[in-house]
Amino acid sequence: MITLFQFKPALGLPNASPFCMKMETYLRMANMDYSTTCINNPAKGPKGKLPYIEDKGEVIADTSFIIEYLENTCNHDLDSSLDSTEKAVSDAFVRMLEEFFYWTILYSRWIDNRYWPDARNIFFGDFPPLVKNIVSNILRKQAKRRLYEQGIGRHTSGQIYQIAESNLVTLSDYLDDKPYFMGDEPTKLDATAVLRAITWLNLTTHRKEKSISSSCLRCNSGVNSTSEVSHFSG
Predict the structure, then answer these.
(1) Is residue 79 in some structural domain?
(2) CA 218-220-202 angle, 5° bins
(3) Model-level pTM?
(4) Same domain assignment for residues 70 and 94
């Protein structure tokens, strides 16, 4: 049986990490047998990140490589019904979410001073107070450097949240009234997109992010409720 190693539930979500939620949602969508093991230290993973899986003695990290491995070994491709053009569109949306939108979530949790205390308590709440302060501050500085190097950390807070809103509106417009992003059946894009929208909706709902406009909240709600894949996320 496949064992999925991931973070524990947090922030009112099945998992604090959108990538972990994506991976478990994919496993459910593909109807695969699996178990989960929650760990708090991503450094224990083979690439220093979560999630990763163990299967038949194999250890695979990174959601893209995990999914590729499962497609090859289990002969199950959620995108098998898509033609080459549809796969290109789907891949473009996935890249937008994982290589761009993801950083706006990282900024909100780790850099925005209004929300950092909540994130620190959730991610480091089990640490002794002194260790908690030292470790969390070191990792926060690393996150700030990563954001700056990626580019999004060079923008103002308002500009970063504007980018998040723009991405979500694009998703909502493309989803429209379809049951799933690419049509009548769930695909890998659904596992990626809906979980990102749910994550951001959770941030804006629980933290009352005033810099996110009401249109963005409507967009999130539309993506969350319209796509039937949300029931796979637990």
Answers:
(1) no
(2) 115
(3) 0.80
(4) no
